[in-house]
Amino acid sequence: MTEWFAAKGWHPRTHQLAMLDEARAGRHALLVATTGAGKTLAGFLPTLTELIEQPSEGLHTLYVSPLKALAVDIRRNLVTPIEEMGLDIRVETRTGDTSSDKKARQRVKPPQILLTTPESLSLLLSYPDAETMFASLKTIVVDEVHAFATGKRGDLLSLCMARLQRLSPLLRRVALSATVADPDGYRAWLAPDGDIDAVGLVTGEPGAPPDITILLPEDRIPWAGHSGRYAAAQVMRVIEANRTTILFCNTRSLAELIFQDLWKANDKSLPIGVHHGSLSLEARQKVEAAMADGKLRALVATASLDLGVDWGDVDCVIQMGAPKGSSRLLQRIGRANHRLDESSRAILVPGNRFEYLEARAALDAVEAGELDPDLFRPGALDVLAQHVMACACAAPFEQGALLDEIRSAMPYSALDDETFDRVLRFIADGGYALRAYDRFKRLVQQADGTWRVTHPQFIAQHRLNAGIIVEATMLKVRFRNGRQLGRVEEGFAATLAPGDTFFFAGLSLEVESIDGEDLIVRATSRPARIPTYGGSRLPLSTSLADRVRAFLSDRQEWDRFPADVHDWLEMQDRRSVLPRPGQLLVETFPREGRHYMVAYSFEGWNAHQSLGMLITRRMEAQGLKPLGFVASDYALACYGLEKVTDPASLFSPDILENEFVDWVQQSHLLKRAFREVAVIGGLVDRQHPGKRKTGRQVTFSTDLIYDVLRKYEPGHLLLQAAWDDARARMTDVGRLANLLDRAGGTMLHVDLERVSPLAVPVLVLIGREKVATGSADDDLLIEAEALAAEAMEA
Predict the structure, then answer these.
(1) What is the pTM of this model?
(2) Domain finish residue from 344, 368, 392
(3) Confidence at 79, pLDDT banded by 50, 70, 90
(4) Which of 52, 148, 246, 479 would disulfide-bridge 154, Cβ 3.0–4.6 Å?
């Protein structure tokens, strides 16, 4: 191996050798190193060394990645050095795309190194021969650990590692990441029994600092918008000046929109592509191949390319709109150059004046080495139910022994006997309200006390339906000749009729017909709108929010800002108040026959959206005749026919005990959350042998069960899991609760005669999301200018 490094003109980096030392000491290890630092090789170096010194058959190392495509990428990068060194080591991938005959062969004759995903690993553990297959396992390498450790896929992987540790007690656990704010949290997550001292922390060399700039418009920073679309011509000039550029957008809709804007400004007809998760696999692979071959000058992408891209010729990354977090920004910046000793170059394009402050805050955070906090939480119960069923598929189990094993996984270390018993009873018969139905009777306790699967059909169903990612109901977008472009959500498709047009995969498409789950389209040159996608937006991180708050109150910082941003803050200070850090500013003012209340809470769109629902309900109860609300990452604006004189009464913490519970139970949120946990927990199947249920069928089934449980068993395990999801993920209730807890003691109410400068960006949003793009955008810009003129008037 030393000769191979020398032949390449390389030498092992300090952190790569340190990982080798940790392995020789038999310790688990977490490697935190910047993108381009050779993390993958560092993770595999001990494996290659051991297989060179002591060649062996059987499975030696598992490499687990959050993305199927990433595993394929790593295979390519790993196989090359193995072949160049002439080593007799087999490396294979196993994902959902692997052929069934290859999967069967891998269980009988596994390679020495297997690259896989958490879901595929869980399925492997559901087979009776898992004990034989994993008996020789020496190492598991978890790549990009920050991408899934704190979520449900991390829960599943943690449970899988607990099982692997039982099958192979000397198993060594390794995790790799470029962006970790809380190394000790990840060490505890990685370690058996949460024993943090058993995991060595290896830190890579810092590398060259990134070169990040903020692109300022040729005119002035807009009052409203969140995408940076105004800068399309400027961005196009940046693309022209570089070999290859990746443009990151925070949503799939925005990616399609930015692609169209760039294409209009692309006077030189440079090759540009678009890449996001709703496009077909073939479309994504085609674009990825074109990038790898250097055939594209620019690629507009979403989080689908945040991880695992190793295109050395990318020399600039552009973030369209605000970055939302310093960790995410660093991850995206690392796509440029992808070399440790060269600065990665990035440009931020803020969409409005608040987003300029956010972009500046992100730059400062990166310079200070401040990453976004990692929020670990207890393991999800629907994931636990799926894992227990996988264990039962492999062999009968004893309840106490399995519980001990599960508790050795950090997310489930506090799992109590009663909750685990409820999980078992749920798998055994579906729960009190469902136990009359045979199709829910999956487990039975035998005379010796062990639990086993009641019928082989449940084993087959589990393997066919297991998985953590539950997608929204989607319709395929395809041409009449059968060529598929990707998928759009059913909610958006329901708004379409034959003759309507929309942008997708970089094309303007006209709807010909809707045939079952297929949206039949043809290419057109007519104007079109952008598909909308449900789900939560990327939340503004608390650390960036705190920095933006600090900017508002620290006048010394203002000299760093462009003149229009400086004047905006200056006028706000004269006309109203600039909130101090920790203070909740609430402004009220009349405008055109309505009364407005704007709260500057900086808790992110998800929390503000939830709060808007609750506050307008309370306004209704107080006779304030609310007409609606709008939310941004920075502020919430409610408006109605009566003046709000006591905003403190609207922000009291008891809103979470009263209005919140009523709202969630009556809204689609809980049903949507229940659909996901019912699928993950195995209560509802996505597919049967030979056919797959449509999204509508799954939704119909889960809605029926949901209604039954709500009526007859409101304490059901999955209703509890759905509540946990709806509260935490869909409403950001944690940040909401913090806001309401401090509102009473920190609120400053300022009653104004007219709109304030700080209120303009959020007020412009009123009506914005209900109109199509095109000429309506011009009307909204006119409205923004009118509002701004009124607000900035001395």
Answers:
(1) 0.84
(2) 368
(3) confident
(4) 148
